Amino acid sequence: MNTKEDFLNGQILLIDKPLEWTSFQAVNALKWAIRKKFDLKKIKIGHAGTLDPLATGLLIICTGKFTKKIPELQGQVKEYTGTFTLGATTPSYDLETEVNETFPTEHITDASIKEATTKFLGEIDQVPPIFSALKKDGKRLYELAREGKQVEIKSRKIEILEFEITRTELPKVGFRVVCSKGTYIRSLAHDFGKALGSGAYLSELRRTKIGDFNVNNATSPNVFKEKLEASTST
Fold first, then answer.
1. For the packed helices 221-230 and 23-38, what is the interaxial angle rounded to 10 degrees?
2. Is the CB of residue 90 less than 8 Å from the CB of residue 201?
3. In degrees to the nearest 10, what's the CA dihedral of 74, 79, 85, 86?
4. Please, how many CA atoms are within 13 Å of residue 149, restricted to the half-sphere of its CB?
5. At 118, which helix (H) or strand (E)?
6. 158 phi and psi angles, rounded to 5 deg
7. Of these residues, 6, 16, 39, 52, which one is catalytic?
8. pTM > 0.90: yes or no
9. Member of which family (predicted)?
10. Is 52 a catalytic residue?
11. Alpha carbon distances (Å) from 86 to 33, 81, 96, 110
């Protein structure tokens, strides 16, 4: 296990974020574990790209001098797997809010699902969800959404490098997406539903890769803490 100097000089830690944890909670759990272990007043620590509480998977956490690498890591291509639920929409485009509209799905076929994926490949304009942490006039969008305010959100250019349907058990559709920085998979779910002449929301999401880093090599915050506590201090 790493020494105090290792953490201060800089480490890239691969964490598998548990369901319902915020990215901030994961960073905090590591920060407290490292500070307690080495009796540190403070340590620089941060993550390279937020994951929503309802998503699991790869969170890259940088310590010490490696926090300078965060912008570079945030810009890497990402891979996600998960599930879209067709035939309904939610205001947040995921399970954070209740279903607000339902749509027919009888006309949807395997062929039309596969065909719809091709519409999203390459560089596309995407509108971020209203329930997101982006800021407008100094306030986060989700705060404005919860206040019931109407907000105009500008679209942004993103790139979908790969979009594959991995299983179809209507109304659920499994997918794998490789995409650029700034892509909202929730927005992709919403737009995918529209492309099928129906509705859709994101019901499951896991980030599996960031650049060359893979979730298979990641550890949960609790396991990290246990290993750190069990290691011999230096």
1. 0
2. yes
3. 100
4. 14
5. helix 110-118
6. -135, 170
7. 52
8. yes
9. Belongs to the pseudouridine synthase TruB family. Type 1 subfamily.
10. yes
11. 42, 16, 16, 13
Q: What length does the chain have?
A: 234
Only one residue has tokens 């060359």, namely 212
Residue 227's SS3 state is helix
Are residues 173 and 84 in contact, defined by beta-carbon separation less than 8 angstroms? yes
Whether the pLDDT of residue 222 is over 60: the answer is yes
Name the least confident of 27-36, 44-53, 144-153.
144-153
Give me the amino acid identity at 20.
E
Q: Which two tokens stand for residue 17?
A: 């974020």
- Of 38, 175, 132, give the one whose Cα is nearest residue 30: 38
Q: CB–CB of 64/7 below 8 Å?
A: yes
Which amino acid type is present at position 12?
I
Tell me the C-alpha distance between 201 and 190, whole Å.
6
- Convert the pLDDT of each residue in 74-84 to its tens digit: 999 999 999 99
Contact 30, 66 (CB under 8 A): no
Question: How open is the CA angle 161-78-160, to the nearest 5 degrees?
Answer: 20
Q: Is 21 helix (H, G, I), strand (E, B) or coil?
A: coil
What six digits make up the tokens of 203? 């019901």
Helix, strand, coil percentages in the chain from 3-state DSSP, rounded to 5:
30, 35, 35
Residue 193: closest CA among 70, 89, 115: 89
Please tell me the predicted confidence (pLDDT) of residue 233: 56
Hey, what are 41's tokens? 């007043």
Q: Residue type for 79, please?
A: E
